[in-house]
Design goal:
alpha/beta, single chain, 23 strands, 15% strand, eight-stranded mixed sheet, five-stranded mixed sheet
């Protein structure tokens, strides 16, 4: 008889998790209930599964609210009713109010204070709370509706003491002080579960209401088949036709990827096709292939990565560019009959192309059958403290102090302890639905059979559940992701064609792997701008490993991951790579199957290998074991069974117990941080594509990196790289530059986008005018043709964008007063012939020149970086003891280096202290790295961007030098001549 149960997915209102709700109701003696979260169904499947375990019957409804006011509750009598209320919420979620809902499979329950001004239908009822029973005789307006009354206990929190938490959530939601809370929008003091017998006792004087409530609840027979596949079943019209098409496409691609006589590859294709057919996953492969076929027709680049790269069928379909035969990747890591969770393809597109791919999927498979995945944005500690501080009316300074200095209670407001306590209790509760990074669902039935849809700002709807629930109820998601690295590659290819007239095939990976120049640049870490391998840590690792081949790069992409590095295995790997002859393998199986990684379990696939080849566990079950060891399976029973099987097999194979236990220990410890090899291999392919472009077309590549943003560094460093490669760097120019950075032969013109506060619409008008009527001849010609205000014109003059006139910025600042008349409307004439005003006036300008480094400081202000060397404005002429390229020669010695700060990485030591790793460029343009231990940081901290004099000891590890900083000081600059 509970028709109003809320979980914490009634965002900023409810407090109960799905498990807590069911357990509370079970403990209070209830056998059935209706879940009715507010404008939401996120908890439906989790509550349903928990209710099945606890032996309770659950039905589903939605409590429709607008601006916090309860309109009515709709309860589904069946699966059809559930779809109806999902569609109702989807259609009207952004309306001013929810229209009436009439359907024979839906019960509608109104609050007492919001009855419709008409007679109620047979499916419409009134929620009658237990605290109102004693007032029944005086509620004359309800007496005609007696046969429509239902028991109305709302469930929002678990006990009266939790109501204050509920009130705090409501205050956060309403963005008001706790004292200003709208009481009509919060739950009553009785909104918690009481024993069923006490609940019924409240209605002792109204047995007809109890009976009617019981009968209605028994009429609701909603059932979910949690084992039923929900994806689109066929790409064609049947499983048989899907597999026939998949086989044809696979062997068409096989002819491109392999020799027709490669029997091993052919046998593997057949094996995979059998499993795909057995698991009825042909449509999943074909839909992915179809999406990429469309992308290819549009000229889009993609990278297929993740465990999907373990599939030779995916490789033949060109879903991935990773050869699983070359890298000995196991298909079972991607798909196997024992795996409980569905696999997914991770497909990366350029950041500016992803939305078009999504649009295609919605149109190709129908908007009723496609939706994006949701994720739950939860309350975090710091954000909660800030929100609660506002609710209690604390000043911003007190709130900041609580967040920035949590261990200094003497400085805190007197409310701080209470706020910390509330924040601790509310932490982790869902705050709102958000969009998953790339998950797409394509369903057989309309997707509203399972969930309402929430329209997102870009126009694509999301479901109400996350990826874990999707897996539990049988959805295979398609991960359609975006990244900037592919944008770099795509634009570079285009720029090379435009600037040099050269066509490039960036998919010729096999040639890139053999290219000696690419090998050399990889080995010395000359990888700035290249996807995944440009960070200081990655370039350092490449040099320490002397990495010059694809296999080594794949390993480097894995061991750089935080878990591996933290475990100490990264250092072990590097040591073994330098001295492979000293490696002592635990068992010959390790040498045979882990020889590529010197006996170190770098990849998740390595755990599968050892379980299979050392203990004889099948590849399918070995992947289940790998998942269990990494905490990705919920079944402890299955894990224990596999563990028992492992040791039983080892004993049968004659392995000593001590050896078996050590192998198990290593597998278990490595599996927690090991990385998917196929994922690393996919990253490495894109790294090779980037590195090829940087090696042979460095100027175009750097322009592409700058224009796609999102690299590890700032545009300044990428311009520095282009300059080292022979480019001439120019400030923005009215007659040469575009909105984005452009290149003409070796001349790179910085885009207007980099000028702070510049108006993009204005720049587009300038470019259009220039393209239609030719270059601007003078400042007067410019102001007559372009409608521009004083502030925007001053920005362009300050950055020297009118240098083609032959006048200095100082002269033009004086002259602009003659071109921009105060009383003249700021509208361009648009005349075919230049007017008198546009003719250059004949007068003598005063002698106005830039002083010293004035241009440097203007560029620093407007672009955020200078175009000349930052060392030129230092007061000192000292440039360091020697170039950074010679550092390795001074191992163990104390040196003085002068460096321009690029970036730093803070790291917490074992003792909890903070140390830093820094990266600098010297006056010759070479990089060098620094290490700052906590004592050094205390007396020589970083002080923002600029040039630093660094004194420290040179430490060389595996051929890579680092300066362990003893003292560091930021050097003073020459005075700004503008002031």
């Amino acid at each position: 008889m509970l028709f109003h149960c809320h979980t914490f997915f009634s965002f900023r209102y409810g407090l109960l998790s799905p498990e807590m709700l069911v357990q509370e109701l079970k403990a209070k003696g209830y056998t059935s209930f209706v879940l009715t979260d507010i404008n939401n169904t996120s908890a439906v499947f989790e509550v349903y599964r928990e209710a099945l375990k606890q032996g309770l019957k659950m039905n589903v409804g939605i409590e429709f609210r607008r601006n916090g006011q309860w309109q009515y509750t709709a309860v589904a009598k069946s699966a059809t009713g559930f779809r109806i209320i999902n569609e109702h919420l989807t259609a009207h979620q952004h309306c001013n109010s929810f229209p009436p809902l009439f359907h024979e499979e839906v019960l509608v329950i109104f609050p007492m204070n919001n009855l419709p001004e008409r007679a109620l239908t047979a499916n419409e009822f009134i929620s009658f709370p237990p605290e109102q029973v004693h007032r029944w005789p005086s509620l004359k307006h309800l007496h005609p509706y007696r046969e429509h009354l239902l028991m109305g206990l709302p469930i929002t929190f678990s006990a009266p003491k939790d109501r204050q938490l509920h009130r705090l959530l409501c205050a956060i939601d309403q963005n008001v002080l706790l004292s200003k809370l709208d009481k009509s929008r919060i739950a009553t003091t009785s909104a918690f579960p009481i024993p069923k017998k006490d609940y019924i006792e409240y209605y002792a004087s109204m047995p007809d209401v109890v009976q009617q409530s019981q009968e209605l609840l028994s009429m609701c027979t909603l059932h979910f088949d949690l084992e039923k596949p929900r994806n689109k079943r066929f790409y064609t019209c049947s499983d048989k036709d899907d597999m026939a098409l998949l086989r044809k496409l696979t062997y068409d691609g096989f002819a491109y990827r392999y020799s027709k006589n490669d029997r091993y590859a052919r046998a593997r294709v057949e094996k995979e096709l059998r499993v795909i057919e057995q698991l009825k996953m042909g449509a999943y492969f074909l839909i992915t292939w179809d999406m990429l076929r469309y992308a290819g027709n549009c000229g889009f680049y993609h990278v297929g990565r993740g465990s999907g790269a373990n599939s030779i069928v995916a490789y033949c379909l060109k879903i991935t560019d990773v050869d699983p035969v070359e890298l000995n990747l196991y298909f079972e890591r991607f798909i196997n009959p024992y795996r409980s969770s569905p696999p997914d393809f991770d497909i990366d597109f350029s950041w500016d192309e992803r939305d078009q791919i999504l649009d295609y999927l919605f149109k190709r498979y129908g908007k009723d059958h496609v939706a994006l995945m949701a994720c739950y944005n939860t309350f975090k500690a710091k954000s909660l403290i800030r929100e609660l501080g506002k609710v209690f009316g604390l000043p911003k300074g007190d709130i900041d102090c609580m967040i920035d200095e949590p261990n200094k209670p003497k400085k805190h407001h007197e409310m701080a302890r209470k706020i910390y306590r509330y924040a601790h209790r509310l932490q982790g509760i869902p705050n709102h639905l958000s969009i998953h990074a790339g998950g797409v669902l394509i369903s057989e039935a309309p997707i509203t059979c399972c969930t309402p849809l929430l329209q997102m700002p870009k126009g694509f709807p999301i479901v109400h559940f996350d990826m874990h629930v999707a897996e539990d109820i049988g959805y295979y998601k398609f991960d359609v992701l975006s990244q900037r690295g592919l944008g770099h590659i795509k634009e570079c290819v285009k720029l090379v064609q435009e600037n040099l007239g050269v066509s490039i095939d960036v998919h010729d990976i096999q040639s890139f792997k053999k290219d000696e120049r690419i090998k050399h640049n990889l080995k010395i870490g000359k990888t700035i701008g290249c996807f995944y391998i440009e960070s200081p840590a990655m370039r350092q690792l490449l040099q320490k490993l002397s990495c010059d081949n694809y296999v080594s790069l794949v390993a480097a992409s894995s061991i750089i991951r935080p878990g591996v590095a933290k475990s100490g295995m990264m250092k072990t790997y590097i040591e073994r790579a330098h001295h492979p002859e000293k490696v002592q393998y635990l068992h010959p199986v390790f040498e045979e199957h882990l020889g590529e990684t010197y006996g170190v379990m770098v990849y998740q696939e390595d755990v599968i290998k050892i379980a299979h080849h050392f203990a004889g566990i099948s590849l399918d079950e070995a992947d289940i074991l790998r998942r269990a060891m990494s905490g990705k399976t919920r079944s402890k029973t299955a894990f224990q069974e596999l563990q028992d099987q492992f040791f039983a097999n080892c004993q049968a194979r004659g392995h000593a117990r001590a050896l078996s236990e050590e192998v198990w220990r290593q597998m278990e410890s490595f599996s927690g941080y090991s990385f998917c090899k196929a994922h690393s291999a996919s990253f490495a392919v894109e790294s090779y594509q980037s590195l090829f472009l940087k090696t042979y077309y460095p100027l175009e590549f750097m322009v592409a990196v700058i224009n796609n943003f999102g690299g590890f560094y700032f545009a300044e460093l990428y311009l520095h790289e282009a300059r080292l490669a022979g480019a001439n760097i120019h400030a923005p120019c009215i007659n040469r530059s575009s909105w984005l950075t452009s290149i003409r032969q070796k001349d790179i013109y910085i885009g207007f986008v980099h000028i702070k506060s510049i108006n993009q619409k204005l720049i587009q008008e300038i470019i259009t005018e220039r393209e239609q009527k030719g270059p601007f001849r003078s400042l007067a010609d410019f102001t007559s043709r372009v409608a521009i205000g004083r502030e925007q014109l001053e920005l362009l003059i300050r950055i020297d964008a009118f240098r083609f006139t032959g006048h200095s910025p100082q002269q033009l600042q004086w002259k602009k007063g003659l071109c921009l008349r105060p009383n003249k409307p700021k509208v361009a004439t648009g005349l075919l012939f230049a007017s008198e005003m546009a003719q250059e006036q004949k007068y003598e300008l005063p002698t106005l020149e830039q002083e010293g480094n004035e241009g440097f400081f203007e560029q620093l202000d407007l672009l955020g970086f200078p175009l000349s060397s930052p060392f030129d404005i230092l007061r000192t002429s000292f440039r360091g003891d020697f170039p950074a390229i010679d550092l390795v020669k001074y191992q163990g010695q104390t040196v003085r280096m002068l460096g321009y700060y690029i970036t730093r990485k803070p790291v917490r030591t074992v003792k909890g202290e903070i140390m830093n790793f820094g990266s600098f460029i010297d006056a010759w343009g070479y990089f060098f790295d620094s290490c700052h231990f906590p004592p050094s940081l205390q007396h020589s901290p970083f002080q923002g961007r600029g040039c630093y004099l660094i004194k420290g000891k040179v430490v060389v590890e595996f051929g890579f030098p680092t300066v362990e900083v003893e003292k560091m000081v930021k050097l003073p600059q020459k005075a700004d001549p503008r002031y």
